Amino acid sequence: MTERTSLLLTDLYQLTMLQAYFDQGMADTAVFEFFVRKLPSGRNFLMAAGLEQVLDFLEDLRFTPAELDWLTGCGRFHRRFVDSLRDLRFTGEVQAMPEGTVFFADEPILRVVAPLPQAQLVETRIINLLQFQTMVASKAARVRLAAADKLLVDFGLRRAHGAEAGLLSARASYLAGFDGTSTVLAGMNWGIPLYGTMAHSFIQVHDGEVDAFEHFARSYPKACTLLINTFDTEAAARRLVPLAKKLAGEGITIQAVRLDSGDLAAHARQVRRILDEGGLPGISIFASGNLDEHRLAELVAAGAPINGFGVGTRMNTSADQPYLDCAYKLQEYAGLARRKQSEGKATWPGRKQVYRSYGADGLMTGDVLTTTDDVAPGEPLLVPVMRQGRRLANMPVLNAVREHAHAELARLPVPLRALAPATAPYCVTLAPPLRQLAEEVDRRIQADLIMRKSRCQQTA
Amino acid sequence: MTERTSLLLTDLYQLTMLQAYFDQGMADTAVFEFFVRKLPSGRNFLMAAGLEQVLDFLEDLRFTPAELDWLTGCGRFHRRFVDSLRDLRFTGEVQAMPEGTVFFADEPILRVVAPLPQAQLVETRIINLLQFQTMVASKAARVRLAAADKLLVDFGLRRAHGAEAGLLSARASYLAGFDGTSTVLAGMNWGIPLYGTMAHSFIQVHDGEVDAFEHFARSYPKACTLLINTFDTEAAARRLVPLAKKLAGEGITIQAVRLDSGDLAAHARQVRRILDEGGLPGISIFASGNLDEHRLAELVAAGAPINGFGVGTRMNTSADQPYLDCAYKLQEYAGLARRKQSEGKATWPGRKQVYRSYGADGLMTGDVLTTTDDVAPGEPLLVPVMRQGRRLANMPVLNAVREHAHAELARLPVPLRALAPATAPYCVTLAPPLRQLAEEVDRRIQADLIMRKSRCQQTA
Asked: Which residues fall in a coiled-coil region (chains A, B) (predicted)?
């Protein structure tokens, strides 16, 4: 549903590695997994998102003639290799956690099994898609937990990092529990409910606030939200009372007012009193302006009479944690498990599954991370989503994903739902078969090194 | 050069305001300016970027038939209004600071002068384009200042916020002084020099590091960069020495090695020693991994023998400051200056110009912010870039922009080039005519309110 992105939106090394594989005839089956190395500081959980766009990308994967021409002319690749890219398609399989699933550090949320060149080429864009939506959904889930049952609208398009970030953050935040967005294209693409108010400029181009309010209300007689903080918030609320009554006589309804600056709780209380005393208890109060989960929790705790919130920049950019420490790493090639041993960046090898257990109260009690050959108690979280390059028919629609996310938050252990870090983090156990596999891989790498060292010494 | 973005990638309120303007017949000339309210915490300056994409957007501005159909069917807009959008084009003018120009809080970097509906509709996307590239260029300029003359390559596509963020951050960082990027599409679109190394997976699919190094070098005999931290960095460097000599005998050159984990300065020193002692002083050392301007400054200060850096996530997401406190605000409508008075968000009214002065040493000494009717000493920074909806012919190409940015950094007062906040911030003076205009606007708003209040009381 999003626009197709050029396959050249990738790192140069993907293409140079592919040519080296081509030169060496290396095209056995490779297995890569995407996971987050550790939870962002202060966070208790993450929420998987972005799978739908990854599958779109894999299904549509191909080089255009213009891209192939550019590769031919750029001086880095030989013609036989570029020719081999002409018919390149993604023919592999994908297993993944459904979008909206809660997950933790080291747990793979997506596995790609495909011929090496395909599985390697897709790395950059898969990370680019999965990390962003997962980051935003994880942040938005916190905002939802803080907001209790208040209306939540994504207002962040303008300060999102470019077009796709704006569009996909509308999707990711809706998935995680927002009620809608102001981003029109997200409404057109996915049917996400749209919300909007008015800008200060609308007030300013009129000679007075009351004229602006009246004009807007007449254009939207069934429901409109009026912005009342351009000059003096309470004065605007007082001026609104006679106008709202006059318009009501003509069947025109003012639905809400919006506050956008100053002490939102104090303004909301005064505006609520003015509207109530003016006989307008039906006009609700909507607030925006530099909000995040912490600010929302304060406003909710203070009992501020605010019915809904527009949350933008700090949610869409995940401002406190604007990236995840995530990776898409080789786990197996040509039937052998593989492992990276770099300092601080070592990975668990092989194809993995996550099994999740629940208590009698339905809350999550712990996960087991193990190899796919092993079976552990609990529910396996990674499921097949693509075979032979085609997505399976059972992919959920966005509203079903949103319901799943909602259910996941309800299954979170209570301390993990708090904004503050839980004293005891969620328990993810590494099963013995996975530890054994890691040791086997280490032994094999060590044996390789010793063998090569002795060969080296013999030839030296 | 980037893909056209749907005009529905906007906030709903832009369209609802447009319909209200249509209903009221309000289409006089409006003037909006984009500016940053205050510098991000700890920063000494910002660098303007993104103008080229804004002009692309304005020149191509139109609704497609599918978008118009959706607007008709969505239930919020009447047919006469949607019909009026069919022929909507941007016919206004734009003045702006050239990309690469250093600027400060409250200084407009772009002004749009157009019929109200056009000038309003473009708000969301203009902010979305200008804030992102300006944010990245400003961060990348700091990285460049910290890196002295080391090679700097953008590695951030994978963790950028979506496709456009990845692509445009390659452009913004190049503009601000990076030497190139790993993002292939940025090479194709703008001719930005491309750099790449290899991934750990390339090592891991081979049975040993030396095989992997040799295969890669044979595919890129003129120049290749080998990643040496997959298992043990120094051991890899030692194994590389005999291989490099063997390959050199066949005319194959290894250009560089890459470090990507651990204590980069310590590894670089040891690897440099191993390579030098092995008779390979020509192989340079390239480092990557969680780098930003502070880390780079440390490595440079420590004299680490590193020739170049790959800087990714923290630069592309501007991780310490992932958004700017920026706005696109109405300054004038129908010939009258306008001003927002909201608490903490008041704006300076009217069309403005920035005049910059320089000392005898060529360094910037201070700016004056004033009305366009006024003339102050110094060089005016905003220049015409678009008239009647068409860009002017004299727009600089990207390499010229990059040279301008380089010259700007060289003209920065020395304390502002430091990473730490300067004790004395750069001096931006508000000229008396601008203060007078603000007072006039305030008096007009006040008079309006009093007049309306008395009208209200008469009718109450």
From this structure: none
Pick from B31, B38, B330, B342 the residue to mutate for testing the A interface (most A CBs within 10 Å).
B342
How far is it, in rounded angstroms, from Cα A337 to Cα A448? 14
Burial B285-323, CB ≥16 within 10 A → b, else e: bbbbbebbbebbbebbeeebbbebbbbbbbbbbbbbbbb
Domains of chain B in start order, with CATH, are 12-137+323-416 (3.20.140.10), 139-316 (3.20.20.70)
- Distance CA(A41)–CA(A421), nearest Å, equals 8
Does B191 reach chain A within 8 Å, measured CB to CB?
Answer: no
A261 lies within 8 A of chain B by CB: yes
Question: A446 and chain B: CB distance < 8 Å anywhere?
Answer: no
A418 touches chain B (CB under 8 A): no
Per-residue pLDDT reduced to its tens digit, A177-208: 999 999 999 999 999 999 998 999 999 999 88
Tell me what pLDDT residue A65 has.
97
The answer to whether A32 contacts chain B (CB < 8 Å) is yes
Q: The pTM is what? A: 0.96
Q: Tell me what pLDDT residue A460 has.
A: 41
Select the residue of A184, A341, A456 nearest B15 (Cβ to Cβ): A184
The pLDDT score that the predictor gives to residue B452 is 61
Angstrom CA distances, B357 to A174, A376, B4, B402, stand at: 49, 71, 39, 22
Confidence of residue A150 (pLDDT cuts 50, 70, 90): very high
Q: What is the pLDDT of residues B57-109, one digit of tens each?
A: 999 999 999 999 999 999 999 999 999 999 999 999 999 999 999 999 999 99
Residue B325 region by backbone torsions, left for phi larger than 0, else alpha for psi between -120 and 50, else beta:
beta
Report the share of chain A in percent with pLDDT over 70.
Answer: 97
CA B371 – CA B310 distance, rounded (Å): 43
Nearest CB neighbour to B230, from listed A197, A318, A340? A340
Phi, psi for residue A343 in degrees, rounded to 5: -50, 125
Q: Does B339 touch chain A (CB under 8 A)?
A: yes
8-state DSSP, A157? G
What whole-number distance in Å separates Cα of residue A241 and Cα of residue A280?
A: 7
pLDDT tens figures, A51-88: 999 999 999 999 999 999 999 999 999 999 999 999 99
B chain contacts of residue A185, beta-carbon cutoff 8 Å: 6, 8-10
B317–A161: do the CB atoms touch at under 8 Å? yes
